[in-house]
Amino acid sequence: MFPSLLVLYDSNVFVDEVHEVINALKHSFSVEINNIEEYNISLSAYNSSRDQYDGQKLLNILIDEQKLNFFLYILQNDLFVPNRNFVFGLGSKYYGAIVSFHRLDSIEMKIKESIHETAHIFGLGHCSDFCVMQYSNSLAEALQKPSTLCNACQAQLKENNKNFERNKD
Fold this sequence. Notes:
Blueprint lengths: L5 E4 L5 H15 L5 E4 L7 E2 L4 E3 H11 L5 E5 L3 E2 L8 E4 L3 E5 L6 H15 L17 H6 L6 H17 L2
Parallel strand pairs: 1-2, 1-5, 4-6, 5-8
Antiparallel strand pairs: 3-4, 7-8
Helix pairs in contact: 1-3
């Protein structure tokens, strides 16, 4: 079984929204969430010329410097990665993910993107079916996808969970 998920959030995110996301993650993944902590964003990931945070740099700080794993970091600040104007979030298999609420104007969208990024932690990649794991290049595309995993992704999630359990020893 995957370990419990640590949920971090920055002080600009409404705590009520964090709890709604947590409830959705518990429902979507049957994952335990034992720790919820406020965490201040690392200023070293800020790019002043873009007025955005470098999402990959921030994720690397949390994984490599803070030594965190199985975490979701929710922040209000806008994110980018090289060669993209922005990203809603990004994740790393079996380590962690970050999601930005900056461009997401409804709790439904915030939940949907949090589920998407958390699924990356559990080893799911992007999916071409009608699935929350569809890649979204724009807000319009993100609005079109469902908030649930397709059958193929659900099966892959179960397989990843079994493989994780076998290989953790």
